[in-house]
């Protein structure tokens, strides 16, 4: 089994990498202190594809990262993630004052595909949450980050942070979180619910002027790599992604959840999830969002290649949305993602999912003779073009294959008798 190769990659020995500040890599040098990254020594069998990645100087045994959310809420679950072999963990988003974070229950709702014989218990394809960021005291979370880094110095722990519109607040949060020893920061510019009136989360990610200012504060303060997490609830996701990179972030992560209303209960006439008879729009995740996440990641990757391609080793892309298989992850990497995050997948299948993800990704790599992630990263990106160009290419192909009757050139060619076959001849898979 391919998973054997994966287990061999996780070793206890740690090697020290040269101390390079994030600013040295990005061409900034003011007021910076150095930081060190300890990482696992890579001992990959020559017959197994190598899943290890190095992203913004952070070395991971595989590209699979726990996405910010319930799977990174406390010491016990993050430790479990490291023990099971996740490439990195992004903790649940923290802020300065957890007392302002008040959650409700129920806060999750599921969408299922129709089951066998139309039963209501089919596979879960969509997941909605109205959960806020971490409601645990910051000091408690920081103690746990510190403990984790002491126990797992060679593993990558990333703090997800979010704060109100206050320069001093962001600076204090960054300072305190960095002191816990985390390897990087992911900035939650994307939480779709809760606290927009405090200019937090998506309220910043959806306003490019605000984002530019806040990103400026953050990047002037941070001494570890910074990833900006994007909301998909915006017309053009490349705009905030571009601003984040221009203002000094080393990476972009996409996507956070998609604004959704899960449904209306047709007996009670109340929306779901129902809290004391009422609800509020939430964030949609899981399998159903994967195609939307692919499109957003594709747009960001194209923008990064075009506008930041000359410094491609300085900037990273972390893809998120509906990953449950190695194939889902391969798709993101084929679009240019350096790492792949999983949140709802872990909530449904547990931390052991990483073994399946690694083994399936290695199977995909073996099938195509890829020996490393870099070998196939971004190779599918060049096959996206405009619809106008598709028409031009198809007309050219029709001319070349005139003798072969496949597909219809014009709507006038549809027939009544051959309708189903004609439809089938234009399906790609
Ligand atoms: C219950 C739940 C809580 C979440 N909490 C956070 C959070 O605190 N911070 C954050 O940046 N993203 C949060 N997310 C978003 C996920 O990290 C991820 O971006 C999104 O769910 C899409 O990925 P998935 O389909 O793998 O879950 C949360 C998602 C869920 C389902």
For this entry, give a set of tags.
TIM Barrel, 15 helices, alpha/beta, binds flavin mononucleotide, eight-stranded parallel barrel, 2 domains, 429 residues
- Report the major sheet: 8 strands, parallel, barrel
- CATH homology superfamily of the largest domain: Aldolase class I
Biggest sheet, spatial arrangement of strands: 5-6-9-10-11-12-17-18
How confident is the prediction overall: mean pLDDT?
88
Kindly describe this structure.
The protein has 429 residues and is of the alpha/beta class. It has two domains: 3-383, Alpha-Beta Barrel (TIM Barrel), CATH 3.20.20; 387-424, no CATH class. The protein has 15 helices and 18 strands. It has helices at residues 3-9, 22-26, 75-84, 138-151, 167-179, 202-205, 208-221, 238-246, 290-308, 326-335, 344-349, 353-367, 373-376, 387-400, 419-424; strands spanning 14-16, 38-40, 53-55, 58-60, 64-66, 88-90, 108-112, 124-129, 156-161, 184-188, 226-229, 251-254, 258-260, 263-264, 271-272, 282-285, 316-320, 339-342. Strands 5-6-9-10-11-12-17-18 form an eight-stranded parallel barrel, surrounded by seven helices. Helix 9 (290-308) runs parallel beside helix 10 (326-335). The radius of gyration is 23 Å and the shape is globular. The protein starts with a helix and ends in a 5-residue tail after the last helix. Mean pLDDT is 88; it is low at 1-21 and 23-45. The chain binds flavin mononucleotide. Flavin mononucleotide binds next to strand 8 and helix 11.
